[in-house]
Amino acid sequence: MYTPIQTVPLRRALIFHRLWGGALGDLAEMTDQALLYRRLFGRFTTGVAVVLGEDAGKVIGLTVNSLTSASLDPLLLLFCAHNQSQSAESFLRSGRFSVNILAAHQEDVARHFSSTRSGEVKFDCLRGKGFVWLAGSNAVFRCHLEATYPGGDHRIILGRVVDMVGPKECARPLLYHEGRYLHLEQEHQGRAFLESHRP
Ligand SMILES: Cc1cc2nc3c(=O)[nH]c(=O)nc-3n(C[C@H](O)[C@H](O)[C@H](O)COP(=O)(O)O)c2cc1C
User: Fold this and answer.
1) What is the pLDDT of residue 197?
2) Which residues are within 8 A (CB) of 80 and not within 5 positions of it... i.e. 6 or more apart?
3) Which of 42, 44, 68, 74 could join 178 via S-S bond, C-beta 3.0 to 4.6 A?
4) Ligand 1: which of 17, 18, 24, 68 to mutate, judged by most atoms within 8 Å of the beta carbon?
């Protein structure tokens, strides 16, 4: 039976700190409505992607699950980045980034780019034509910045896809649900990819 959740007492806020790994915002400053919104939206199960770029020779990454394909003609995608996101600032400065759709075996990559990290990136990054991307991803979209739009405490960042690659078969995907990383329980059989689109 459906039971509406009406209030989220602040003392229970720590439960929701797991959403986005507790990486965003100060929960003490969030209203009950915002917490409730996050909690209910956490039921919308998503994949996980890392937006990757380079700034002064340093690899910059941001774990996102707000990724959406926006248009087929032209090829556009969008994601939302918090107004305080340092990574987003650097993508906007350089005007280019790659969007890497993660496989289940890349959970450590997702964790790394969703935390305040000082350590260097130890993951296998590939480079070419001014882009940097993550080896082993299920799909990589190389984008030029098309536009940004205000969206409350986030910015909506629209990228024009200039190039894309992916392995012949999709590996088991990394999922995110109610603040936790999950893997598909069901036996996953990647669908064979079109020969002409092989990386
Ligand atoms: C699964 C997952 C999805 C996330 N999705 C987003 C997102 O779509 N937009 C965003 O701004 N932050 C998102 N975050 C939080 C950022 O990854 C995190 O706040 C990061 O530390 C921001 O780094 P920066 O401030 O250096 O850019 C997500 C975190 C996780 C774990």
Assistant:
1) 52
2) 64, 66, 151, 154, 155, 156, 157
3) 42
4) 24
Please tell me the distance between residue 63's alpha carbon and the centre of ligand 1 in angstroms. Answer: 5
| Position 1 confidence tier, pLDDT thresholds 50, 70, 90 | very low
Going by CA atoms, what residue is nearest to atom 29 of ligand 1? 20
- Give 9-51 pLDDT, tens digit per residue: 444 444 444 455 444 455 667 899 999 999 999 999 999 999 9
Distance 196 CA to ligand 1 centre (A): 34
Stated pTM of the model: 0.86
Most ligand 1 atoms within 8 A of CB, residue of 46, 64, 148 to mutate: 64
Residue 56's region, left for phi above 0, alpha for psi from -120 to 50, else beta, is left
